[in-house]
Every structure is written in structure tokens, then in C-alpha cells.
Amino acid sequence: MRVAIVLFERFTALDAVGPYEVLSRLPGSEVVFVSTRRGPVRTDVGSLATVADAELAEVSEPDIVLVPGGPGQSDQMTDGPLHEWLRAVDQTSSWTTSVCTGSLVLAAAGLLNGRRATTHWLAMDQLGALGAIPTAERFVLDGKYVTGAGVSAGIDMALRLVGEIAGEDLAKTIQLGIEYDPRPPHDAGSAATAPAEIVERLRANSRHLLT
Amino acid sequence: MRVAIVLFERFTALDAVGPYEVLSRLPGSEVVFVSTRRGPVRTDVGSLATVADAELAEVSEPDIVLVPGGPGQSDQMTDGPLHEWLRAVDQTSSWTTSVCTGSLVLAAAGLLNGRRATTHWLAMDQLGALGAIPTAERFVLDGKYVTGAGVSAGIDMALRLVGEIAGEDLAKTIQLGIEYDPRPPHDAGSAATAPAEIVERLRANSRHLLT
């Protein structure tokens, strides 16, 4: 299983690293972080850089492609090398996947037309405008197209993918290995459960990030 | 709030990036990744490098110190520059913290003597042997010493820290921002809930990592 995780400036770190932590534990898997050029790529906050070890052209025919989201997603919405590469690797991928607003990039590249998909809760309308069928679930499988909700959802999505690829026993083994027994201090992780004034404040503050 | 996250070769990515994703969203916080030398530091799996932007000597008096775990923790157990730095920054830190087997490093540096602390479920015995009081909880606060359980527990721990530092409303806001509404496909994230044969297999396979 060759896994290619896309990086771009101002991506959100956990979108990429959550699924990485799970998928890299698939026996025999090889993960490569890929970007338009090699070298450090800064996250949205700016205080973390992760290294792209390969350029897009160096990675062909990965089995799993994963596109993270983050504020920098808005720079990846026009046709160009990344979209061309995504359409090319999608021809042979077993799974074409995204976390958070990474699904907007997949959709903009034309890969989610008429497909059920999800994204960060603040970006559902845009996902629909790009031709996908917005679906408010933690992660959505539509054939080989697998999309996760916001940021932390990539962990759940990747564990499900491991189950599909290698069976539930391995998914459970990896879950126990990363001690994924979540105990959030509050029940505030979705727009349905968070206090309404917090939902509205985030919606107002985030509008400029999602254009 | 200045946050220093320690990197060392063969750390586990999510140990560091989970709390980073939360703590970097504290208004006014500055996060710096710090290591014995600047530059890329490879994770345990090897296919991801994150960049240390500062050397230990360049970072003094952070408010929060965080030590991740991972297989490379076993190279950080002898006295030397990292232990000296940890003892120095602990003099003035508001919070001295760890995720996973990072607590073994804190304990080896002499910072958890007689304190309640936690670690990855496979490393509880070692934590006790190093002078701490092993406590099987998702995260443990003992004064300013805050330790998280394995890998993914750093997200829960960091949300709790945000609550302590800036109040529950901000913790909920960050939780909603990263859409942390976990839905693991299985209930297998702790030794208490995972199938017994999976617990035993992991225990057998992981013995060489925890020496």
C-alpha cells in the first residue's frame, strides 16, 4: 500500500498527521508526503513545518491519495499542477481521500461530481456548490472516494479505511496502539452539540477563511 | 503563552501534533518546536520529518513545555543536554507536560518523583520504576505536571489545559474548530475495551520498544 499525502502552504497539521499516524501502521505501507516542490511546508499557524520528501511528478500510482485541508486550501482551488496530478493518480488509486476542506480541492479538481462527501462543518455549502452531495457525517465512503469531516475526523476515517483494506482486527490493533480512547473534556465537537453562541462566533470569525 | 514542544529522532508524530493543533489556537500563544539541533527530525515510522526551528539553548522560560513519546524515547533516558534543559525550563514553567512515553523522559530527568502521572498503557510499569505514581487515566494533572496517556491522548490533555489556562468557553471553541467529535469505528482504544488477544499480541510485539 503506497500512501501519498499532499502538503501545501497553510495546511492544517492534524488533517494530515492524524491519518498518517494510522495509515503508516498498516503493515507494508509506504507513506510519502508530496507537494509541488520538495522541502519544508508550513502549516496554517506557521509554527510547524513538515517536510515534503517528493514532488508531485515523482509520485505516480499511489494506492491511497489523501488531501488535507486548512486555510491554504483556498490557494489550491484553480486548475493547475495539483489538480492535474490528482486527476492522474485518481485513475489508478484504490482510495482517493480527503480530510476537512481537502474535499473542496478534490471537488474543484472534478473528482467528487455527484458523489456523497463531507468536509469541515463550516464548509458544507461550498462543497455542494462544487458539485458534490454534502453529507453531514464523521466520514463518508462513496465507492473509493472517502472524505472526512473537520481536522480530527481524519483519525476516525483512517481507522475505517484500515478496516476496509486489512480487516477489523488490524484496525482495532492500530487503535489500541495509538490508545485512541477519546475522552474530550467537553461535548462541544460538533455544531449540534456545542453551545449556540460558540457556533455562531466561529461561523462569523471563519467566514474570511472560506471564500 | 510560549509553548515549547520537544522533538527527538523517532518520536511519534501525533504525540506532538495533536496538542500542537490545540495549543497553537490559544490566542496569543507562540509555539516553537525545539530539539538538540535545528532542522528536520524524523518520526518513528520514518516517512515524516517535522522541523525543529530552535535548539534547546535558544529556548528559555517557555510557559508550557511538552515532551512527546515514541520509540526514540529510549534514547532520551540518560542524563545530558535534554534532561538539563528540561530541569532548567521546569524552574519557571507554568506547565510541564508530556504525551505517551514522554513522561518516561520527564521522570528520568527527575521531574516526576512521587507525582501522579500517566503514559502509554504499555509503559506503566516503567513509569513506576522511575519514581512516579502510575495512574491509569486519560490524562493526569498533579499540580503543574500534566501527563497524557498514549499518542492520541494529547488532544484531550491539551483541551483540558486550554480550559485551565483560558477557560472552558475557549476550550469548547477550539474543540469545535477542530471538529473534535470523535467517532472511532471500534471500541478498542484501551486495554480494558480491546479484545484480549489483541492486547496480548501488542504487548508481546512491543516489548523490544520499551526497555
From TrEMBL, chains A, B:
SUPFAM superfamilies the UniProt entry points to: Class I glutamine amidotransferase-like
UniProt xrefs under Gene3D superfamilies: 3.40.50.880
UniProt-listed GO biological process terms: regulation of DNA-templated transcription
Pfam families in alphabetical order: DJ-1_PfpI
InterPro entries assigned: Class_I_gatase-like (IPR029062), DJ-1/PfpI (IPR002818), INH-QAR (IPR052158)
CDD domains: GATase1_PfpI_2 (cd03139)
Name recorded for this polypeptide: DJ-1/PfpI family protein
